Amino acid sequence: MRLRFTKMHGAGNDFVVLDATRRPLELSAAQLRHLGDRRLGVGADQILLIEPASTPGVDFRYRIFNNTGNEVEHCGNGSRCFVRYVVDHGLTDKKTIRVETVNNQLELTLADDGRVRVDMNRPIFDLARVPFDASGLVPRAEGGFELWPLADVGVELAVLSMGNPHAVMRVADVDSAPVATIGPRVEGHPRFARRVNAGFLQLLSRREVRLRVYERDAGETLACGSGACAAVVAGIRLGWLDRRVEVHARGGDLLIEWPDDSASVLMTGPAVTVFEGEIEL
Ligand SMILES: N[C@@H](CCC[C@H](N)C(=O)O)C(=O)O
């Protein structure tokens, strides 16, 4: 099968974007892995599939696959690229777009400066929904939140979901943080039944942080949008951060806002087309 694709990135988190709005596209896990492969395929952290919506009032369906072929619930940076794609390819003339994902709906707005603002919905703190098994653990309370000890890994985690699972650790310096060694141990820890995205957060001030994320399946990426939201929400609940925070990832910057505890988290950032092409699968 010959497949047209668009290669995009959001703050360095990169994607192969596929248009399945006109005809259905079913790809096997092996084909998705091939697309994501940086040597044998196109190369991407995630593969994004755009489909027609099945719900009235919703513009598109947006599906996300990690480069392992696993379908996942959320991808913040990918959602910005999705908007750029549907606008640039004339699939809509709206500037505010509603999209359904595997477990949610999102509202996305293309700003005049080309950046995209995403309503990432409300964070989920119910540990069973992350899911995180905290049985037998005693958390340390800080601010209005808990830090959970993983004694076997030697870390303390804030745990929450942005629709997908996140664990956030505070570090003194992201450059020297043990992302490559601790990241996979947290990602695959048995207390996270569906594994987890592991964030390493360095505070610069109450309004500015640096962040690295070891993503579930994809490993460390240059940025993780849902990870940035999770880290800022955790930092706010722990009393470390204000409600509007600039997040510096290795591949670019994201603005994260959480106006109050009952509000949606808002993420604003770039979405860039790199090239278009065709590949034989
Ligand atoms: N890069 C993403 C998150 C992609 C999914 C993640 N690896 C998971 O498995 O949950 C983002 O920008 O949010």
Automatic annotation (TrEMBL):
Residues at the catalytic site: 75 (proton donor), 224 (proton acceptor)
Quaternary structure and interacting proteins, as annotated: Homodimer.
Gene3D superfamilies the UniProt entry points to: Diaminopimelate Epimerase, Chain A, domain 1
NCBIfam families per UniProt: DapF
Pathway: Amino-acid biosynthesis; L-lysine biosynthesis via DAP pathway; DL-2,6-diaminopimelate from LL-2,6-diaminopimelate: step 1/1
Chain sites annotated for binding substrate: 13, 46, 66, 76-77, 164, 197, 215-216, 225-226
Location (main, coarse): cytoplasm
Site description Could be important to modulate the pK values of the two catalytic cysteine residues, residues in chain: 166, 215
Pfam families found in the cross-reference section: DAP_epimerase
Matching HAMAP family: DAP_epimerase
UniProt protein name: Diaminopimelate epimerase
Keywords: Amino-acid biosynthesis, Cytoplasm, Isomerase, Lysine biosynthesis
Known function: Catalyzes the stereoinversion of LL-2,6-diaminopimelate (L,L-DAP) to meso-diaminopimelate (meso-DAP), a precursor of L-lysine and an essential component of the bacterial peptidoglycan.
